[in-house]
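Question:
When you can, review this sequence-structure pair and walk me through the tokens.
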Amino acid sequence: MSTRVKIAETTPNAWKAMYALSVTVESGLSKTHKELLKIRTSQINGCAFCLDMHTKDALKYGETAQRIFLLNAWKESGLFTEEEKVVLAIAEEIALIHNQGLTETTYKKALEYFTEEYIANIIMAAVTINAWNRIAISTEMPVPGV
């Protein structure tokens, strides 16, 4: 890999703004929802740096290894609650926005479990992790220890 721009150093104000957005949005989500969303989005986007970070965070917050291992097959596994499935569906539909975006079906299902404020936080968290994935991949941020 080549050495690429370190955005935190070259444009620290932009980096700090992204970080502030992340902290603000994610403070409104449960730790489980937040980390499942980040891991699943990072799987879709193929971001090794973010996968490494967020799987470690999820384990630290009490997530099980089995659920992390099966996250890519969340629809079939039966290990995830209906609320978690809605969060994961939103994460996938936003990550794969070019397919159809956040569908009406998923949005209506979210309304069954969450307030509009919570849904807004899920959407913003999905948008934010997609941005972080793109930063990490574009700048080839290394996975620690590799």
